[in-house]
Design a protein that fits this description.
Layout lengths: L46 H5 L3 H6 L1 E6 L8 E2 L5 E2 L1 H12 L3 E6 L2 H9 L5 E2 L13 E16 L13 E5 L3 H16 L6 E5 L2 H9 L5 E5 H9 L5 E18 L4 H14 L2 H9 L18
Helix pairs in contact: 3-9
């Protein structure tokens, strides 16, 4: 289900770090005051949930989690190249609740779902928008609600609803790349107007820099990601329009896996005991918090 909701820019003020004079670089060497995974949030193991894990996971003592760590503040790299971000903290909390370790399998975004369906990863957690199309490949345990927000160069007026003929940057294989911008472009051509040219980049930093350098007229990304990018570019970017098309994020799990109900109950337990909200508050992204961990919410809309 998609509904319109405005996400205020103030929602990410807690994670705005040192502004950069040049192009954005979200490696942790540049991340100054950004939060990082914190041992201050303690998680207690739930023995009943742990006992429900598949035998292979219990035997290995770890959950292999597919992730693309190029989407700050959700997931990105620290100074040592390790993944950090609020989704990383939440993944670690899930693993701790289940009495195992989180083993992050870093990969390109579009390779994660194939790794899940092929049995290489136990699940994927990388800001996956739960869509009915993706639900044909995997099941989703929903844990957050995010919208889409465009950004343009400061002083440049861009209307996401009237963007025919523009160049729009997006990270490859994200919902914005595969669905949102192409749908807008199709509407343009059907109306006899120029198509929108989608400029695809492997990382969100590259998509952001394309706008700063004038290669693209705008970027499209999930709302917390766009607001974070704006906060990191020393006034070079501005929001273009308002947040729209709010939809759920989900943990991507192999279809029919016995792990799905265990993860659903684990996320719900973290919501109920306050751990989930503490993590989101720490990163300033609690605007998208949910109170119920659903399964395959997109198909229920």
């Amino acid at each position: 289900m998609r509904t319109s909701r405005i996400v205020p820019a103030a929602a990410l003020s807690a994670i705005a770090a040192l502004a950069l004079a040049g192009c954005v670089d979200n490696s942790a060497a540049q991340n100054g005051g950004s939060p990082s995974s914190s041992p201050s949030i303690q998680v207690t193991k739930d023995d009943a949930l742990a006992a429900a894990l598949p035998e292979a996971v219990r035997s290995s003592g770890k959950l292999v989690i597919g992730m693309d760590d190029t989407y700050p503040p959700n997931e990105f790299k620290d100074a040592a190249g390790n993944p950090v971000g609020w989704e990383v903290d939440l993944a670690n909390a899930i693993a701790s609740k289940l009495g195992v370790k989180a083993d992050f399998a870093i990969a390109k975004f579009d390779n994660i779902i194939p790794s899940v369906t092929g049995g290489k990863d136990d699940f994927g957690m990388s800001s996956f928008t739960d869509t009915t199309e993706r639900e044909q490949q995997v099941d989703f345990v929903n844990y957050y609600s995010a919208g889409i927000l465009w950004a343009s160069a400061a002083g440049k007026t861009v209307d996401p609803n009237n963007a025919c003929g523009l160049k729009v940057a997006a990270q490859t294989a994200t919902y914005e790349d595969t669905d949102e911008v192409p749908a807008k472009s199709a509407a343009c051509t059907q109306a006899g107007k120029p198509a929108i040219e989608v400029l695809r980049y492997d990382t969100q930093d590259d998509a952001t820099n394309a706008v700063i350098l004038g290669k693209a007229d705008a970027l499209s990304a999930d709302s917390p990601v766009t607001l974070y990018a704006i906060s990191k570019t020393d006034g070079k970017l501005q929001a273009a329009g308002e947040t729209f098309d709010v939809a759920p994020y989900g943990l991507a799990v192999a279809k029919g896996s016995t792990l799905t109900p265990t993860l659903q109950k684990t996320v719900q337990a973290l919501i109920d005991d306050g751990t989930y909200r503490a993590i989101l508050d720490q990163w300033g992204v609690s605007d998208g918090a949910v109170t119920t961990a659903e399964v395959n919410a997109a198909s229920k809309g």
